[in-house]
Amino acid sequence: MDWGLAAAALGIGIVVGLTGMGGGALMTPVLVLFFGVSAPAAVSSDLVASAIMKPVGSIVHLRAGTVKMDLVKWMCIGSIPTAFCGVLIGHALGSGTNVQDAIKIALGVALIIAAAGLFVRGYMRLAERAAHRDGRRAADPAGPPNVVVKPIPTLIIGIVGGLVVGLTSVGSGSLMIIALMLLYPTLRASELVGTDIVQSVPLVISAAIGHLIFGDAEFGVTTALLVGSIPGAYIGAQLSTRLPGALIRRALAFVLLASSLKLLGATTTLTLLVLGGILVLAGPVWMLLRRAHGFPAWPRNERVAVAAASDGDSREAPDVVDVPEPRN
Q1: How many helices (H) and strands (E) does the chain have?
Q2: Closest CA to 199 of 14, 70, 22
Q3: Domain coordinates of the chain in residue numbers?
């Protein structure tokens, strides 16, 4: 077994545990770019490993009641057949360098969309916080939110997502969750993650079966992925309560973009120029967005202001004991 690959899978598993995203979006490019695994074998090995890992997370969410089964049903109707079709399309493109180049291009485009999706996800959270602060956001209902299912758009998400996953292994934890967030903005984060994980189980299994039929999977690679990623995901979940998720998501978006540029054939100079430009512009742009929504440009200033306000309240009423609320 390749212990270097297992170590890389451990690091990626930690990122997945921290953010809930990035499994296929990071694993497949790492296999292709750093370990010399062919694109079809990288996609199929990642999918087979995911087919073994994802049911574990889905059981946790089903027990917690954070899964919208109506949405899962419509997404699976679209994604299960198209995931298998994605595998067929990948093989119909040709053999040798032709199919590998085609998959690399598809994967690069998918990673760019995933990186953009992370930005959209962060912006929507910022806008939601502003709406909650200003009283423009409805109060949380006493029970589960009443989500009106939109069958056709949900079916389309499944169809497109399944096709992309079948071709590239990317999308079940990044592209599709962003699409769900845009279509059902009232869903809470835990419900988005739970619904996406559960619907991705039959989707990934369908794609994995397709690759197994064609014999693309390399079981030595799959074994190394499982050995590293399973404990990595557990460690990441433990760290997620201690590290800022926003910082991790930004780093993940940066890595996704760098991987996509290399997969699309960008030169090292062009890649460095693009990444350098994003490093220079990303901070000021995000500060402007925070200011536009009424938040201080620096998150630290926001925390200081909140702490000062809390301290002022305690001085005004020194005889009141501040009892922390129980954690949900």
Answers
A1: 12, 0
A2: 70
A3: 3-134+146-266, 271-313
